[in-house]
Amino acid sequence: MEKISSLLEDKPVVIFSRSSCCMSHTIKSLISGYGANSTVYELDEMSNGPEIERALVELGCKPTVPAVFIGQQLVGGANQLMSLQVKNQLGALLRRAGAIWI
């Protein structure tokens, strides 16, 4: 968890992704569509990617990507983000985290 916490520090939106994952791409596009500038960690391009992926599993991320943290809190994966979008709650969550202002 410490490894994950250090990557989340002072960042309103963090996405753990794989460069070849279509759902990760969809979630990154969804969040950037709000104008939020998210920090993206491509686990398949990081030397410690497998270690981070194990830490995500310990946090309950299944599947491990995409894993989205908003306001340093785990929101979940693609299903959870799409559910928030359908319920019109994602924008408010991004605003509370300071990721967007409008």
Automatic annotation (TrEMBL):
Residues 13-75 form the Glutaredoxin domain. SUPFAM superfamilies: Thioredoxin-like. GO terms for cellular component: cytoplasm. It is found in: Cytoplasm. InterPro entries: GlrX-like_pln_2, Glutaredoxin, Glutaredoxin_subgr, Thioredoxin-like_sf. The keyword Cytoplasm applies. It comes from the Eukaryota. Its main location: cytoplasm. Keywords: Cytoplasm, Redox-active center. NCBIfam families: GlrX-like_plant. Belongs to the glutaredoxin family. CC-type subfamily. This is Monothiol glutaredoxin-S1. It comes from Cardamine amara subsp. amara. The lineage of its organism: Eukaryota, Viridiplantae, Streptophyta, Embryophyta, Tracheophyta.
